[in-house]
Write a structure and sequence with these properties.
- The strands form six sheets. The protein has a seven-stranded antiparallel β-sheet. A seven-stranded antiparallel β-sheet has the order 9-6-5-13-12-4-23, with helices on one face. Strands 18-19-20 form a three-stranded mixed β-sheet.
- The protein contains 20 helices and 23 strands.
- The protein is about 30% helix and about 15% strand.
- The chain is globular, with a radius of gyration of 23 Å.
- By secondary structure, the chain is α+β, with helices and mostly antiparallel strands.
């Protein structure tokens, strides 16, 4: 089996848009000080199928397509600013903004608009996002909710059948019908955050993506793999077929140059008129018409231009909780990510996680660079805590503007005394399989079930002023609803609502679909701070997050524990084996990782065997995380990008 060794490079930012379809590389000394950058072709990562032996990826359970693993990546050291995105072209463009004096909010706008071009399978302006932003001047953390909303005409059965008189399922399926498309929110979020925290003119922040759309860019290997995976669905939509497929219907391949004049026109309008150009006028009319299109028997959605004009991003109170010597801040509902991560960490706080360090860490070997191998004890304890957290998530969490959390407070589920009781349910000798939600007495919501979520992207940024941004952004499944309008993909975010509005007892579930409601998410953008001796918030220490649908919670927990408990650097933490569990009997151990022997369904791997002895049903299917992490040290920042995707970290020269 051939594995490639790839270095994650830091660099002083060169002119943006030079890294079209390429990875960034620099000549650098052993301290990883950024030097002059050049461009080199992507390495050739082994495929996920090769990594996992006979294992296959079930795309109904895992986000997007798995595209391999870059071994031996090394951390990036920067000075006063750093940015990590899931694509090197977007990283380069955002880094140029930081280099030229922009803030993290300015760089976010550029990163998002460029990602919408080079990673449309995961994100774009037709989707939504959650953002945590740290303002160094005020020492405050703002939580921005740019989640999509259901249209005003939606009913609880909107996704189940066409109408009360026509109880047939939406066609060609729920996701590809107009019913899955929520009112996009990411642009309103960016507008609000940049207005409050930006320094550069809004118009100029559209320029990198406009230029890229006009000049063209090469399809990356990951984007090409997802086009191939989604060819049949993309072919149903005329716009997607023309853009992503060849005239004969075959998928466009890696290295093919794409131009997107429609997107350039859309972004130019947003540059000159602001985001109202998207939510009103011709673009809004095009979005509504596309959602309402019944061509070919497709079930139309009921989103109107009034729904688009009425959309507003919301500022919410960040959910912050102590974890040992740190304070961890996450996103509150309607995302379940911040709550679930805080719950898991709160349960782990009762265990000596430092004593469960991975094997083979602390050296310079390739195995150490890839994060070492977690112990079965650690995987067991963390997975069991995650099962308990997912059980609470599935029952209680939803859009708080529609469904109140237990005790009418988002902090009820992360109360230390409650989490200590939950942690006591973990049997160190055997997996619980599935967990029951906590008992808060009579509550007006039924026992919901886990919803399958899919693809996303993530951006981590710190700027030279000390501000930081962690934003997870998505169109839901790969290529969203497969519909392309005015150059961008429309989301299928409404499929994150519960499939059935009532539970088996006929009680409405929290995450049922309602008009104007935001579907629950698992996105978990995270900011970490040191804690002072008196318990107050200290300096910013870490920025982290990951794409990955419902598995995001597991990816973020793994990354945080690796850094905060096991002392791994950010690159080791994100490179480490992906593991964890939702509230099912299955425990994930990512078979794409070189330290996992995925042959014969993992029967020869010591970690997998031991977990099975503990009662876990272990899946070694390849995982598709795209985590990034930035950590502050005495000289500046250290960054890591996930080897399972195409991400890169860039920043300025660290002090010598």
């Amino acid at each position: 089996m051939r594995r490639t060794r790839t270095r994650a490079w830091g660099a002083t930012c060169v002119a943006p848009l030079l890294l079209i379809g390429l990875l960034t590389a620099c000549s650098s000394d052993n301290d990883q000080r950024p030097a002059s950058c050049t461009t080199v072709p992507n390495g050739t990562p082994h495929t996920a199928a090769t990594a996992a032996g006979s294992a296959t990826t079930d795309l109904s359970l895992h986000p997007e397509v798995a595209t391999g693993y870059r071994t031996g990546m090394t951390p990036v050291r920067t000075g006063t600013f750093a940015v990590a995105t899931a694509n090197p072209v977007a990283t380069e463009a955002a880094c140029a903004v930081l280099r030229d004096g922009g803030t993290a909010a300015d760089a976010l706008v550029v990163a998002q608009t460029v990602l919408g071009l080079v990673e449309p399978q995961a994100t774009g302006i037709g989707g939504g996002a959650f953002l945590l932003y740290y303002d160094a001047a005020t020492k405050s953390v703002d939580a921005y909710d740019g989640r999509e909303t259901a249209p005003a005409a939606a009913t609880p059965d909107y996704l189940r059948w066409v109408s009360d008189t026509d109880r047939t399922a939406p066609q060609p399926n729920t996701r590809a019908s107009g019913r899955s498309i929520g009112t996009p929110g990411v642009l309103r979020l960016l507008e609000l955050a940049q207005r409050e925290h930006g320094r550069q003119p809004w118009r100029e922040l559209m320029t990198p993506a406009v230029d890229l759309a006009d000049r063209g860019f090469k399809i990356s290997p990951r984007m090409a793999a997802q086009i191939t995976e989604s060819t049949a669905d993309l072919a149903r939509d005329p716009g997607s077929r023309a853009y992503f497929l060849e005239p004969d219907g075959s998928p466009k391949r890696a290295g093919t140059t794409l131009t997107n004049p429609a997107m350039a026109k859309t972004l130019s309008a947003i540059a000159s008129e602001g985001v109202n150009a998207f939510y009103t006028g011709a673009i809004a009319a095009d979005i509504a018409a596309t959602i309402a299109d019944a061509t070919g028997g497709r079930t139309p959605g009921l989103t109107t231009t009034a729904d688009l004009a009425a959309y507003q991003a919301k500022k919410r109170t960040a959910l912050c909780a102590p974890y040992r010597t740190h304070e961890v801040c996450g996103m509150p509902a309607p995302s379940s990510g911040g709550t679930a991560v805080a719950q898991v960490l709160g349960m782990l706080a009762t265990s000596d996680m430092a004593a469960m360090k991975p094997e083979h860490t602390g050296g310079d070997s390739e195995a150490d660079r890839d994060g070492g191998k977690p112990t079965a004890t650690a995987v067991h304890v963390i997975s069991e805590a995650e099962r308990l957290a997912y059980a609470d998530r599935d029952k209680y969490l939803a859009d708080p503007d529609f469904v109140a959390p237990p005790g009418n407070s988002p902090r009820t589920l992360i109360d230390p005394a409650y989490l200590t009781r939950r942690a006591a349910l973990i049997d160190p000798a055997h997996s619980m399989g599935t967990a029951q939600p906590g008992d808060f007495g009579p509550v007006p919501v039924g026992n919901g079930t886990q919803q399958i979520e899919h693809g996303t992207s993530h951006i981590s940024i710190v700027d030279s002023y000390g501000n930081a941004a962690s934003m997870t952004t998505t169109v839901e499944s790969a290529f969203g609803a497969f519909h392309l309008v005015d150059g961008f993909v429309l989301n299928n975010q409404l499929t994150d609502f519960a499939a059935e509005p009532l539970d088996a007892a006929g009680v409405p579930v929290a995450n049922r679909l309602e008009a104007g409601k935001r579907p629950r998410s698992s996105m978990a953008p995270t900011l970490v701070f040191e804690r002072a001796a008196d318990g107050s918030r200290g300096p910013l220490s870490h920025v982290a997050g990951s794409p990955g649908g419902a598995v995001i919670i597991q990816f973020v927990v793994k990354t945080l524990v690796a850094m905060l408990d096991w002392g791994l650097d950010p690159q080791q933490a994100v490179s480490m084996i992906d593991f964890g569990a939702a509230n099912t009997g299955t425990t994930n151990v990512g078979g794409e990782h070189p330290a996992v022997d995925a042959t014969s369904n993992g029967d020869h791997d010591a970690l997998v065997r031991r977990l099975r002895e503990l009662g876990h049903q272990v899946s070694i299917a390849p995982q598709s995380s795209g985590a990034s992490a930035l950590a502050r040290d005495g000289r500046g920042w250290i960054g890591g990008a996930d080897p399972r995707r195409e991400g890169a970290v860039l920043g300025d020269e660290p002090p010598r």
